[in-house]
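hey so i finally got around to running the thing on that chain from the lab meeting. sorry it took forever, my laptop kept dying and i had to restart like 3 times. anyway pasting the input first so we r on the same page abt which one it is
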Amino acid sequence: MIREAETKDFKTIYILGEEVQKNFKKKFNLENLIEESYFHILVYEENGKVVGFIIYTLLEKTVDIVELVVHPDYRNKKIATNLLDAMITNSNVDTTFFLEVAVDNFIAIKLYEKFGFETIYTRQKYYGQKDAYVMERRPQ
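ok and heres what got predicted. didnt touch it at all, straight out
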């Protein structure tokens, strides 16, 4: 089940986020950010447990995907696909989407391309020593 995150989900979101980014909790103060109208979190819940989430911002007709995380034990079960699909489906048809992804994260890149994202440029050393692609999905 996909739903909007609630404050009771934050502990699990922080734990999942730390698996991907060691300073996740310092970077995202979810308690404050969730109060902002432009900030959104969708969670994927299975058997009462949050096993994935997507964080994005929506300003005017632009969405920036900030994080997409799925618990390692639940990967390859279309959870990331379903989260992306829900976010896009719930957005305005003339919305442009942006994200950054590590150049060697081939699985994520393939997923984003499946949804119509295209690489528009490379950010050098965006993830420490690792480059990132900036990807965009224009209105369909």
